[in-house]
Amino acid sequence: MSAILLFNKPFQVLSQFTDDAGRKTLSDYLKAPGFRPAGRLDYDSEGLLLLTADGILQQQITSPEHTLWKTYYVQVEGEPDQRALEQLTRGVTLKDGLTRPARVSRIATPDLWLRDPPIRVRKTVPDSWLQISIHEGRNRQVRRMTAAVGHPTLRLVRVSIGQWTVDGLPPGHFSELEARLPVKNRRGRR
Questions:
Q1: Is 28 one of the catalytic residues?
Q2: Residue 73, strand partner residues
Q3: Contacts of 179 (CB under 8 A, 6+ apart)
Q4: Are residues 5 and 78 in the same domain?
Q5: Residues of the signal sequence (predicted)?
Q6: Quick one: 156 and 176 in the same domain?
Q7: Strand 103-107 relative to strand 46-52: parallel, antiparallel, unpaired?
Q8: How many domains does the chain have?
Q9: pTM score
Q10: Residue 94's domain is classified under what CATH number?
Q11: Which of 13, 51, 109, 178 is a plausible cystine mate for 35, CB 3.0–4.6 Å?
Q12: Residues 58 and 133 placed together within one structural domain of the fold
């Protein structure tokens, strides 16, 4: 068992401990010597970020081999039709290739914390919410996927990674747990 930190990363915070440009980083919220992020969450995205001091656990969390699903609440511009949802579900061709199939559904406006600053609201363009789950981690992948089907992302909140969720954790706060992932060999056996 290894310690893992579940951190609710606020909007416009880097997923690292230092920054030469003076932007907010994890060190503004955490004093966790030896802990490193297991994956990334973009500067302009919010929600669950996992940190651990265990290099093997960190590799297991981030490795596509372990297929941990990452789930996001995504506020998009416009109202995606069934065709757009099917495209996201099947996979979207991006500049770096076809994405793996995703789990996608429309959802009601989720009960989330207020974002500071709030998203830009346009009176003439509606917005809507999707729940999107992926199990790969390309740079800005969800944002690029929604843009590719004609619905740019306005707000992106990661709510879970595998079994871990951000439930009950306010922005800028963390909780510490003991964690273990099953180690699989290359053929997928435990």
A1: no
A2: 131, 157
A3: 1, 2, 3, 4, 52, 57, 164
A4: no
A5: none
A6: no
A7: unpaired
A8: 2
A9: 0.91
A10: 3.30.70.1560
A11: 51
A12: no
CB neighbour burial string for 160-176, b if at least 16 within 10 angstroms, e if fewer: bbbebebeebebeebee
Tens digit of each residue's pLDDT, the chain (190 residues):
788 999 999 999 999 999 999 999 999 999 988 999 998 999 999 999 999 998 888 888 888 777 789 999 999 999 999 999 999 999 999 999 999 999 999 999 999 999 988 888 888 889 999 999 999 888 899 999 999 999 999 999 999 999 999 999 999 999 999 876 654 433 344 4
Nearest to 113 by CA among 39, 168, 62, 176: 168
Q: Give the residue from 42, 17, 20 showing the smallest Cα distance to 31.
A: 17
Residue 118 exposed, middle or buried by CB count within 10 Å (0-12, 13-18, 19+): exposed
Contact 13, 29 (CB under 8 A): yes
* Long-range contact set of residues 106-110: C-beta below 8 Å, sequence gap at least 24: 106/80, 106/130, 106/131, 107/73, 107/131, 110/73, 110/157
Domain range for residue 179?
Answer: 1-67+163-190
Active-site option among 19, 20, 42, 81:
42
